[in-house]
């Protein structure tokens, strides 16, 4: 998602400049949905007291009691058969219905070579030399760059930086290969995994979908096995990375003893806009080259070396609403130039999607004290018509770390204010935006890499990843740091 607060043509009214105030309206149905998810997976919580009572009762048995029980069972074959059958049935039911744990073994983020760096000066020089933009729109892009939160070390592909630019299929394939293979090579080196061990492959890239697909390119390059389960997701925006994680999680539930490789990236080469519509120029100023490779596993043997365990995924889709559907839209301008148009309603749509997502996520992750306060104020407002604002829970009590999609500075500012996060909480997102720009679906992994490089993550820490995407979507993933972070040691930063 991109920053849309910077230009008057994009946002003519002040009401569109900020995310909606979450305290003004929280819909009860999304709270119910969150509690439904909690109760659906709460069978084990209900059985826990029963198990404790049985264990307590057994602990009071003396040796004489056991002899009496044995004598009774010897002369009561029917009781033995019934008890044994019940025990086998319950054990089978438990192991069949229990979800498989999903571990994040490791991940890697692609770092382009220094020759691909694009400072603001280089960006403006190349934009001017194309001859495609009038002087007013060159000044417009300059203002966006200055306010965007991007630094001087972001990256663009060679086809865009070249004079004149060369946006063609061959160059787009070169960019995709460099990003995907660069991230995968580093990941395989980190994990010592053989390509033939990968059983599931999920690739997401919104705006570049060649034939054969990107997933087929990876299978061909690394000679992956013939029965691999592969998916290629397109057109799903910046939140597609978490959709890929959710899909891989579901696949790992039905494919035991498997590894899943997830690739999140975007392609710049064929999606650079060379027209003069301002609603389509913003993406040029914010989106940059990048990608990430993530290795997931459902093998019990990987729990010790894995970095994280996936706890929850919550997906929110607002596509049934026409305004939400069209707020990020790829189209042609009057001169036939293709680009992605950002609506003036983008911030309002994003705020509504975020509110829905966190309202559903809250019951799954928040401590009971926060849930009771939230629920009490909500009941007072909805049922008793009390003139009070719904209580917005403190998500800092549920998570130690936050990875919020680095779509733009204005978006990060508003999320920080609405969720009452600190500068420390927002640092990974802001620094990722500054260092790498908006790398679309992979930005969350650059943020996680930054958090690790600073030595912040310890075993047991909880991580919230949240991303926005066209459609319109808002998706969340919750991770818990596992044995891979038991030492809490610092890692080498991506910049070296």
From TrEMBL:
Pathway: Lipid metabolism; fatty acid biosynthesis. One of its GO terms (cellular component) is membrane. InterPro entries: 3-ktacl-CoA_syn, ACP_syn_III_C, FAE1_typ3_polyketide_synth, Thiolase-like. Residues 94-383 form the FAE domain. Keywords: Acyltransferase, Membrane, Transferase, Transmembrane, Transmembrane helix. PANTHER family: 3-KETOACYL-COA SYNTHASE. This is 3-ketoacyl-CoA synthase.
């Amino acid at each position: 998602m991109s920053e849309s607060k910077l230009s008057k043509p994009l946002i003519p009214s002040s009401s569109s400049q900020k995310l909606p105030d979450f305290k003004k309206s929280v819909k009860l149905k999304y709270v119910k949905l969150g509690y439904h998810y909690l109760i659906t997976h709460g069978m084990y919580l209900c059985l826990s007291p029963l198990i404790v009572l049985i264990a307590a009762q057994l602990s009071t048995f003396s040796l004489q009691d056991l002899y009496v029980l044995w004598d009774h069972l010897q002369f009561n074959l029917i009781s033995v058969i019934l008890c044994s059958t019940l025990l086998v049935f319950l054990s089978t039911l438990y192991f069949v219905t229990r979800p498989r744990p999903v571990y994040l073994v490791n991940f890697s983020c692609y770092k382009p070579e220094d020759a691909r760096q694009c400072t603001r000066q280089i960006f403006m020089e190349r934009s001017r030399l194309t001859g495609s933009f009038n002087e007013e729109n060159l000044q417009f892009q300059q203002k966006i760059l200055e306010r965007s939160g991007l630094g001087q070390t972001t990256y663009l592909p060679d086809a865009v930086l070249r004079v004149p630019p060369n946006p063609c299929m061959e160059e787009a394939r070169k960019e995709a290969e460099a990003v995907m293979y660069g991230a995968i090579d580093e990941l395989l080196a980190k994990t010592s995994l053989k390509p033939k061990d990968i059983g599931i492959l999920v690739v997401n890239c919104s705006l570049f979908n060649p034939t054969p697909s990107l997933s087929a390119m990876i299978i061909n390059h690394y000679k992956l096995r013939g029965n691999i389960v592969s998916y290629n997701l397109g057109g799903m925006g910046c939140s597609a990375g978490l959709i890929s994680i959710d899909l891989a999680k579901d696949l790992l539930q039905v494919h035991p003893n498997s590894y899943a490789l997830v690739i999140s990236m975007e392609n710049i080469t064929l999606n650079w806009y060379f027209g003069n519509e301002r609603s389509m120029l913003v993406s040029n100023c914010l989106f940059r080259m990048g990608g990430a490779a993530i290795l997931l596993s459902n093998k019990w043997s990987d729990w010790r070396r894995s970095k994280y365990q996936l706890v929850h995924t919550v997906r929110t889709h607002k596509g049934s609403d026409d305004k939400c559907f069209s707020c990020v839209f790829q189209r042609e301008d009057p001169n036939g130039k293709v680009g992605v148009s950002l609506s003036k309603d983008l911030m309002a749509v994003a705020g509504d999607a975020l509110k829905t997502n966190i309202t559903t996520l809250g019951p799954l992750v928040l401590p009971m004290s926060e849930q009771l306060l939230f629920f009490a104020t909500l009941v007072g407002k909805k049922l008793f018509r009390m003139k009070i604002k719904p209580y917005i829970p403190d998500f800092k009590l549920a998570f130690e770390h936050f990875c919020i999609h680095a779509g733009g500075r204005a978006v990060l500012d508003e999320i920080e204010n609405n969720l009452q996060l600190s500068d420390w909480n927002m640092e990974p997102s802001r620094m990722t935006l500054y260092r790498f720009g908006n790398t679309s679906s992979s930005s969350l992994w650059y943020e996680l890499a930054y958090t690790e490089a600073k030595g912040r993550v310890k075993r047991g820490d909880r991580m919230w990843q949240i991303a926005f995407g066209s459609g319109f979507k808002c998706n969340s993933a919750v991770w818990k740091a596992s044995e891979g972070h038991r030492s809490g040691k610092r890692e080498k930063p991506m910049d070296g």
